[in-house]
Amino acid sequence: MLKAIVYKEWIKIKRVSLFLLLIGVLIVIGIYSNVRHELIIKDAESYWNGILQQRAIWFYVLKFVPLIVGLLIAVAQFVPEIVDKRIKLTLHLPTNEETIVLKMVLFGFFCTTLILSVFMGMFLGMGAYFFPQEIVWVSFLTTAPWFLAGIAAYFLISFIVLEPLWKQRIFYMLFGAAFLGTFFKGNFPGTNEYLLWPFVGLIACISIATLFSIYRFRKGEM
Amino acid sequence: MLPKLSRYLLVFVAIFTMGYVLPSIYRTFFDVRISSPNFSYSVLNKKFYASKYVDGQNRFSDMEGNEYTREEYMDELPINNFYYHLGKGTLPDSIMGVRLNPAQLRQENFYQGTAALEFSMPDYGLNPLFESASDFGITLPKDVFRIKDRMEFVVAKTNEIDEAKSKEYTQALKDQGFVFPARVLGGIPSFMKSRDDGWFIQDSTLQLFHLKMVKGRPEVNRVNVPEGFKIRKIICNDHASREFYATIVTDDNKLYLLMTDNYGIQPLPIEDFDANRQTLVMGGNLFYKTVILMDEAFTKVYVIDRDFKKVDELKEGLPLKSEMAIGKVEQFLFPFSIALNKSTSLFTGIYMKKYVSWSWAILSVVLVIFTLVLIKRNNRSLKNNILDIVLVFFTGIFGFIAVHMFPNKEY
């Protein structure tokens, strides 16, 4: 059963995942091509001074990329399910419907996390070539909430798309936008050190939110 | 069971989000500006004066409530405003028997400010060591240093460690008895300064050292400090007077000056500084130093003479938002509020503010009654909604919106 679900979900998100992976990799390469260019045309110590003393952030372009990844994967995975209410077919399979939906969400979460991990790995790995570990670590602390926002966006969009009523969807979108906004509050390098675990906890809370939508769907909310 | 759990988890996240968003929106629309007055101490009259921004205008007064024009205020404070008097040719020849020399006034005049958030901010732990005896002004070095189990210089161009320089400086520190790693570092990491005095570094055994690079070579001096001198922050300066290298704040919130004369540690007679929430402003002139402690509740000013004895002090309360209409309405609307940023730290966090007043309970009761009416009207059982009602009571408007946004329907 798990194999079949993975196959079905992969068909839906394959194109968008590979496209986002390519775009993200190009963005990270772009960021460090720019860093390399700056280090060549300026004095390296002056560029470092901008980062260390003026707290310059050289990777702002990355800020909303993880959010877009989570959002598009969730849309690609769950919008086809609500077109003509195809999710009904899945929910009528002779197995526990909650388990099926959780497996679908788990697969989407796995793909989103994998893509974001590739971005983060490349971002930090290439960073370590140009900068000392202290700058790489602070870059991690600065970008980590943006990446967590991508995972939160995946869970929220899955939950919102599967919600049967448009009126509720609009409320949920407002709530989702306000919640996701909290991940982008720190604008100073390394400022989010103590907020990462609370963010992980909040994401864990919304990770099974799709079960609430499916429950309402199954009970015939129209 | 799982759908019910997922609903309550969503309600919890919604309460968190509302607790942050609604008070923010409320303050965005209704916040009021509180301008704290600037206090100055007159050498001439030995009393405090205040300048305050009220209704778009500067108002000048003394502590007895006498109002002054701007010109009168400038005349009452000739030393604090000596540039004004120099320009007008009205600077007195002498005050307190001391002949006033403009060059000396300029040299002795200083001002420095340290906000509470400078005690709580992320730090890279990488700093530049400037050449202190440069013939061509202060320029950025090609490397930055870190101090862990040794002193290391990382070259910016190659991102590699300069082993020879690292060994030389590590040895120079060890030769003076430095025990790695460092506890606290203080210096001016910017090249926008009039001179370089290097770095003051406290080691793991609470010894304090002064490290400079002189003609490319390390110069390390030991600073004698009192027993158990746990430094929290070393605030260095490049004041023209060169009277003191730095202001030192210890873990127990005591203030000291690190004097340039033989590295003396001079305590300041300030007993109630709290680095976690107060802004520390220091100013000085030929006659006195003023130390100003500011937070949202009050401003306190200490006047200290050249022998570091307290001459006068002033404490003025500020209007508290919690006692104004904006604060009272806020306490009525919200049982608590959540902020992700605060003015005394650059670290984000979940900063929850619980109000002292219980006026929010009135609205909570109204919302509980409203929720009960809705439950009755929709023929839902009270037993299944008891947790919702408890949530609405304790989290007020946040919980009310959350439990109705994620309806607890019975099918």
From TrEMBL, chain A:
Keywords: Membrane, Transmembrane, Transmembrane helix. It comes from Flagellimonas olearia. Coiled coil: none annotated. The lineage of its organism: Bacteria, Pseudomonadati, Bacteroidota, Flavobacteriia, Flavobacteriales. This is ABC transporter permease. The keyword Endoplasmic reticulum does not apply. The chain crosses the membrane at residues 16-35, 55-79, 100-131, 137-162, 169-188, 194-215. The keyword Membrane applies. It comes from the Bacteria.
Automatic annotation (TrEMBL), chain B:
Keywords: Membrane, Transmembrane, Transmembrane helix. The chain crosses the membrane at residues 6-26, 358-375, 387-406. It comes from the Bacteria. InterPro entries: DUF4857. This is DUF4857 domain-containing protein. It comes from Flagellimonas olearia.
